[in-house]
Amino acid sequence: MIAAVCLDDNNGMLFNRRRQSQDRLLRADLIREAGDGPLWLDAYSAKQFKEAPACLRVAEDFLEQAGAGELCFVEDRDLTAWAGKLEGLILYRWNRTYPADVRFPLSLEGWRLARTEEFAGSSHEKITKEVYEK
Hints:
By secondary structure, the protein is of the alpha/beta class.
């Protein structure tokens, strides 16, 4: 399983049980990353995808259902219990600091940064994408 997570400059994920931000071009990048495979997510995250592509797999237990090499968009879950199942991480960094009360819980120690990309989002001047492998 590969987890894709959006983070602010302080590794914040959520504030008051809500995502900090969202971006249309980031969602398009997620769909490209999924390729021919599924993009797993929960109903909360699926609301962002107004025109639901065929690759979306919506389930509240999506982290349990996702198979090897399959992409999961994680906005509101603690990945600690799934750390052993993770084969990869895609961190989308907003390059901003937002209020946050939930932070990304995993250390990147033991992970290898495979590639970094920067792109302009629809709502953010610059989004940095970091792809990590074990």
